[in-house]
Design a protein that fits this description.
Strand order of the largest sheet: 3-2-1-4-5-6-7-8
Strand content: 5-15%
Number of domains: 2
Radius of gyration: 20 Å
Order of helices and strands: EHEHHEHEHHEHEHEHEHHHHHHHH
CATH class of the largest domain: Alpha Beta
CATH architecture of the largest domain: 3-Layer(aba) Sandwich
Helix content: 40-55%
Structural class: alpha/beta
Length: 340
C-alpha cells in the first residue's frame, strides 16, 4: 500500500461517503468534497453524514471540503461520485483545479452509472470531452454489484474497474481492494458502462413485477431476458459479449433487481402500485438513475434499430402512462422466436 496516498472524492452522497470511509480505513488521506455547508459541518463535528449513510462513522482521515481548490490540491487520485446528469457541469467547475494538478493526478475515476441526459453519451465519453488533455488517458470507470449500504456494512462484494490503460488498472486494483471489496479489471469500458446503466431499467421492470404480485418465475424471466437485452444493446455499441456474463453485467443486474435497497427497483414498485413518476421522484432525495437511462436507451435503440422490448415497455410506463398490466401483455404476446 502506498503511504500517504491522497484521494479526493467529489460528491458526498451515499456511494461517495461509503467509499470515503472504506478507503480511509486503509490509511489513505481522503478529501471529501460536499456541496452544502450543513453536510460539511456534520462530518466535521459528528463524523457522520446521516442523510445518506445513517450511522456510518467516518474515520478522522476523511477531511470534508467545500473549497474546490483545497479539495484537489496535491491529490493522487480523484473519484467522481455525482449523479450522471451533473457529471459534465461538476467536472467543468473543477477544470482549473484539474489543470493545475495534472502532473500529480494518477487517475480520475467515475462511479456513477447512466448516460448523459440530452447527448446520450456514456459517462467516460463525457469525461473525455471535459477533462484537460493530460488526464484523458487516466479515465477509469468503477462499476459492479455495489449496493452502498452493504459495502458500508462490510458485506463481501466484488466490483470492476475499467479503462483502456492496463497499467493504470493494475496500479489501482490493490489500492481500491479491501478484505470485503474485491476488485477485478476489464478493458471493455463500453461493456462495463452499458451494464451499469441498462441494468437499472431492468430493475425498474423487476420492481413493477414485484408490485403486481408476480413470483420467482416472472423475476427470473425478467432477469434473463433483461440480460439478453442488455447484451444485445451493448454489443451493438461495440462491447465485448463476455463482459455481460461477469460482475459488471450479470452481477450488477441481479443485485439491483433483487435488493430492497435498490432505488430503481423501488421506483418500479411504486409505478406498479399506480403512482406517477413525478410523484415518485419528488419524494426521493436520492437519484434513481434508471429513469433518465430509460429515455436514453430508448432513443439510442430507435436510432440504431436495436430491439429492446423491456426498455420500450418501461419507457411507455414512465413517459406515456402505459398501464403496467398492459405492458405485461405486450411482452407476453410478442412474436414467437428462438431463445438464441
Amino acid at each position: 500500500m502506498e503511504k500517504n496516498l491522497k484521494i479526493s472524492i467529489i460528491g458526498g452522497g451515499s456511494w461517495g461517503t461509503t467509499l470515503s470511509a472504506m478507503l480511509a480505513e486503509k490509511g489513505y488521506i481522503i478529501k471529501l468534497w460536499v456541496r452544502n455547508e450543513s453536510t460539511y459541518n456534520e462530518i466535521k463535528k459528528y463524523r457522520k453524514n446521516k442523510k445518506y449513510t445513517s450511522n456510518l462513522e467516518l474515520p478522522a482521515n476523511v477531511k470534508p471540503f467545500l473549497n474546490k481548490k483545497e479539495a484537489l490540491n496535491n491529490t493522487d487520485l480523484i473519484i467522481f461520485a455525482v449523479p450522471s446528469h451533473t457529471l459534465r457541469s461538476i467536472i467543468k467547475s473543477f477544470y482549473n483545479e484539474l489543470l493545475c494538478n495534472c502532473n500529480k493526478i494518477k487517475a480520475i475515476i467515475n462511479v456513477a452509472k447512466g448516460f448523459e441526459t440530452g447527448t446520450n453519451l456514456r459517462l467516460s465519453q463525457v469525461m473525455q470531452q471535459c477533462v484537460p488533455e493530460d488526464l484523458k488517458s487516466k479515465i477509469v470507470i468503477l462499476s459492479g454489484p455495489n449496493i452502498a449500504l452493504e459495502v458500508a456494512n462490510k458485506l463481501p462484494s466484488v466490483t470492476v474497474i475499467s479503462s483502456l490503460n492496463v497499467k493504470l488498472l493494475n496500479y489501482l486494483q490493490p489500492i481500491i481492494s479491501t478484505d470485503y471489496f474485491r476488485v477485478y479489471t476489464n478493458i471493455d469500458i463500453i461493456g462495463v458502462e452499458v451494464s451499469g446503466a441498462v441494468k437499472n431499467i431492468i430493475a425498474i421492470a423487476s420492481g413493477i413485477s414485484d408490485s403486481l404480485g408476480y413470483g420467482a418465475n416472472t423475476k427470473a424471466s425478467l432477469v434473463t431476458r433483461g440480460l439478453y437485452e442488455l447484451s444485445k444493446f451493448g454489443t451493438n455499441l461495440g462491447a465485448n459479449p463476455q463482459t455481460f456474463a461477469g460482475a459488471a453485467g450479470m452481477g450488477d443486474l441481479v443485485a439491483t433487481c433483487i435488493s430492497r435497497n435498490s432505488r430503481n427497483r423501488e421506483v418500479g414498485e411504486r409505478l406498479g402500485s399506480g403512482e406517477k413518476i413525478n410523484e415518485i421522484l419528488s419524494s426521493m432525495f436520492m437519484i434513481a438513475e434508471g429513469v433518465k437511462t430509460t429515455k436514453a436507451v430508448y432513443e439510442i435503440a430507435k436510432i440504431k434499430n436495436i430491439d429492446v422490448p423491456i426498455t420500450n415497455c418501461v419507457y411507455e410506463i414512465i413517459y406515456n402512462n402505459l398501464d403496467p398490466i398492459k405492458s405485461v401483455n405486450i411482452l407476453m404476446k410478442r412474436k414467437f422466436k428462438s431463445e438464441v
